[in-house]
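# nightly structure sweep
# worker-07 picked up a monomer target from the shared queue
# config: single-sequence mode, recycle default, output format = structure tokens
# input follows
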Amino acid sequence: MRSLSLAAALVVLAPCTSALAQAPAAAAPAAGNANPFATSLKIGFERTKKLLLASAEEMPTAEYAFKPTPEVRSFGQLIGHVADASYMFCSAARGTPAPKKEIEKTVTTKDGLKKALAEALAYCDGVYGSATDAMLTQPLELFGQKMIKFSALQINLTHDMEHYGNMVTYLRLKKLTPPSSQKE
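# output follows
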């Protein structure tokens, strides 16, 4: 069972390696770090958070209602969805009920959505910031499946980057440069 857990951790950590590769060398986990998995998640979360917040800023106010096709979420709904999901995943890792914000359905302005996203990501800051490798192995149930807290936080990162990819497409369709392609 322990080797299965380690294998699962390595599989879900793989997406973090791109975030680590793009993070400054000083941010990489140091040799002998007592919490290498928690540190890797924190680095991935910090990069993802910056990309999401910068995307919310980059899109002009008038384009928050933009939908590439009628069947998909608008840019603003994507921001709200990421905020709502952040509360859900980070609450699971905290072991507390998720706040019922329904941001995607109730907040429509750029300023309101940027604020809601920033608050949701700040809520997750506490979880990622206090995570230890030992804490990450604690069990929880999410989507009717038993898993460990590491999995909930990794799913959150994967989900965020999935929707960052959507945001990149929306920004490019509006002839804007996404944050990950901008020169720093």
